[in-house]
């Protein structure tokens, strides 16, 4: 959220936590403040969504930065949104890396270390959202951060449990029914079907919907309803 898509307020009533862009791939201080106020209005937990500093590619292409450079970027982005939230009487709830930074951290220990050290230096009580069973999870747990395994409603998975690259034709889920089925299976069975039709472990505690997705508002409404109908509690 806070990426200038224009649907944030339509989605807010159906979610429990928001990943808000903090200037790296999208957003600015004004947009952060506006989005935080929306989250406050709907009692949604505020999370920082730091990314590679790459607005041109919306943070979705890996940048080969040093561990120190990633640390500085992540630290600065989280600090900015944390200060804006604090000014509104809101405590930052979590951090979730965005796009290529998320995917790189899942497989790269150096990148994971940079992100984790930045989070610890700002607030070691922050929750961290990321890919379950990944290197990022291991680094977070080793550093005694509270890791929250995240599943995606609108993305498909490889046999290795990673997200299917966006360059693949089958990377995105666009049908509401398919998205609901994937979410319910992940929540209830802690597994997901890969693009090769194999069931793989996916221990999740939070579900992500991309706010810039074409079906984001519909997905948010219908998945919220489906979770309720299946007696699954939604909270942060």
Describe, in plain words, how this protein is organized in 3D.
The protein is built from eight helices and eight strands. The protein has 236 residues and is of the alpha/beta class. It has a domain at 8-155 and 203-215: Glycoside hydrolase/deacetylase (TIM Barrel, Alpha-Beta Barrel). The strands form two sheets. It has a six-stranded parallel beta sheet. The longest helix has 21 residues, at 67-87. The two termini are 17 Å apart. The relative contact order is 0.13. The model has no long low-confidence stretch (mean pLDDT 97).
List the topology elements.
Layout: H1 8-11, E1 17-21, H2 29-41, E2 45-49, H3 67-87, E3 94-95, H4 99-105, H5 109-122, E4 127-130, H6 135-142, E5 146-152, H7 176-189, E6 191-193, E7 199-201, E8 206-208, H8 216-229
Parallel strand pairs: 1-2, 2-3, 3-4, 4-5, 5-8
Antiparallel strand pairs: 6-7
Helix pairs in contact: 2-3, 3-5, 5-6, 7-8
């Amino acid at each position: 959220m806070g990426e200038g898509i224009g649907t944030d307020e339509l989605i807010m009533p159906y979610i429990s936590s928001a990943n808000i862009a903090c200037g790296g791939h999208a957003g600015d201080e004004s947009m952060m403040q506006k989005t935080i106020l929306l989250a406050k209005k709907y009692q949604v937990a505020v999370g920082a969504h730091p990314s590679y500093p790459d607005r041109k590619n919306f943070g979705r292409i890996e940048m080969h930065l040093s561990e120190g450079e990633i640390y500085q970027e992540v630290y600065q982005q989280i600090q900015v949104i944390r200060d804006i939230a604090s000014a509104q009487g809101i405590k930052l709830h979590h951090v979730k890396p965005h796009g290529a930074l998320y995917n790189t951290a899942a497989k790269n220990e150096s990148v994971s270390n940079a992100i984790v050290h930045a989070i610890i230096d700002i607030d070691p009580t922050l929750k961290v959202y990321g890919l379950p069973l990944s290197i990022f999870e291991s680094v977070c747990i080793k550093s005694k951060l509270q890791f929250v395994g995240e599943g995606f409603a609108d993305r498909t998975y490889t046999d290795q449990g990673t997200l299917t690259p966006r360059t693949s034709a089958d990377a995105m889920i666009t049908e509401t029914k398919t998205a609901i089925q994937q979410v319910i299976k992940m929540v209830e069975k802690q597994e997901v079907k890969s693009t090769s039709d194999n069931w793989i472990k996916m221990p999740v505690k939070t579900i992500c919907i991309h706010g810039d997705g074409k079906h984001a508002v519909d997905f948010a409404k219908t998945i919220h309803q489906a979770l309720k109908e299946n007696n699954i509690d939604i909270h942060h």
